[in-house]
Amino acid sequence: MTYTAVLVPGDGIGPEVAAAACEILKAAGAPISWITHQAGVAALEAGEKDLLPQSTIDAIQKHRVALKGPCTTPVGGGFSSVNVAMRKKLDLYGAVRPVRSLDGVTTRFSNVDLVVVRENTEGLYAGIENEITKGVVTSMKVATRDACLRIADFAFRYAVHRKRRKVSVFHKANIMKLSDGMFIRCAREVREAKFPQIEYEELIIDAACMKLVQDPTKFDVLLMENLYGDVLSDLCAGLVGGLGVVPGANLGEHAAIFEAVHGSAPDIAGKGIANPLAITMSAVMMLNYIAETHSDTALAATATRIRDAYNRALVDGCKTRDLGGSLGTREFASAVIERL
Ligand code: NAI
To answer: Residues 128, 82: one domain?
Structure first.
């Protein structure tokens, strides 16, 4: 059985790391047939009229799974985020970012194993901003009961499915009493009605961040709204070695896009030194997702082989510069392939 998946290389380091991940999957014999579609600045450079061409959305809708590189969003002006638009258009409401310590990557903590679950469609990311009058700007934070219930249900289902023990909601409901207030009430409601066996806690996000950096091993599944999830994902990446080692999935009922937490890293783009591990890990998540959907044990075994190979590569000291090593993107990919 061969599965078709959409490849969106993205901008900056995106094409470099995506190519390395595809090379690893190919060498492992993963039965994936890629259809490449563009998004971001890369789409315009390829002659498309839009940053997010309808053909890209259509392809993901049709094939249901995509591996995506990061897309650049200009700071303080210019066009809106292609990534946010993509998640909204495809209703990929649940972002899952597993954050785990890796053998061979030395950090302050050696046994971090947590998952950030981020609501992916609303909050301040609704992108509703107005300059009411000169010098006065409002940004609207949107929270709907439906979306709050939906992401809470998603997080608890994930916890049960993955045999996780606890869900911690990070919030600021002391200040945003209505929006964050509803977010925690919905989480509480879902837990009480359907998941009483899962341990549950609500933490005000500022103090929660302090606790997280003091001892991340106390945490398991972290549930939060969009902006908090964005910030916390990078913070958590910092606990296990950085953005080069944290994968992610954006999941909805009808499609899934797998992408690293990191961005297009313009500071190192084109130099061949970016770490392709995060997108490779995202690709492994994609293989496992397809394997589960199709009950394909052989594909799950291929995913495990890739994971074992990159874990071994790290233990053997094969590392890119962000992890203190000296390998380039392609060299790291070759080191993984040698260990398949
Ligand atoms: P960034 O994640 O691109 O880079 C932050 C730092 O981490 C940089 O020093 C970079 O060199 C390093 N880094 C990131 N990924 C790396 C990798 N794989 N290997 C080695 N080093 C790596 O974040 P930044 O600079 O804030 O954003 C750059 C652009 O990316 C912006 O336009 C932003 O909007 C976009 N972005 C896109 C995302 C997406 O497509 N999902 C997610 C985050 C940012």
So the answer is: no
For residue 183, name the pLDDT band (cuts at 50, 70, 90): very high
The alpha carbon of 189 and the centre of ligand 1 are apart by a number of angstroms equal to: 36
Domain end residue (candidates: 207, 239, 271): 239
Number of domains in the chain: 2
The verdict on residue 49 lying in a domain is yes
Regarding the beta carbon of 281 and ligand 1, being less than 6 Å apart is answered no
Q: Nearest residue CA, atom 4 of ligand 1?
A: 265
Enclosing domain of residue 188: 120-239
- Of the three residues 175, 204, 239, the one that is the final residue of a domain is 239
In the predicted structure, residue 80 carries a pLDDT above the cut 90: no
What is the per-residue pLDDT across 1-46, written as a single tens digit (0 to 9) for each? 899 999 999 999 999 999 999 999 999 999 999 999 999 999 999 9
| Pair (127, 170) in one structural domain | yes
Q: What would the 3-class secondary structure string for the chain be?
A: CCEEEEEECCCCCHHHHHHHHHHHHHHCCCCEEEEECCCCHHHHHCCCCCCCCHHHHHHHHHHCEEEECCCCCCCCCCCCCHHHHHHHHCCCCEEEEEEECCCCCCCCCCCCEEEEEEECCCEEEEEEEEEEECCEEEEEEECCHHHHHHHHHHHHHHHHHCCCCEEEEEECCCCCCCHHHHHHHHHHHHHHHHCCCCEEEEEEHHHHHHHHHHCHHHCCEEEECHHHHHHHHHHHHHHHCCHHHCCCEEECCCCEEEECCCCCCCCCCCCCCCCCHHHHHHHHHHHHHHHHHCCCHHHHHHHHHHHHHHHHHHHCCCCEHHHCCCECHHHHHHHHHHCC
Cα of 262 vs centre of ligand 1, distance in Å, is 4
CATH classification at residue 5: 3.40.718.10
Q: Which of 8, 41, 72, 243 has most ligand 1 atoms within 8 Å of CB, for mutation? A: 243
* Ligand 1 nearest-atom number relative to CA 277: 18
pLDDT digits (tens, 9 = 90+) for 210-226: 999 999 999 999 999 99
Q: Is the CB of 250 under 6 A from ligand 1?
A: no
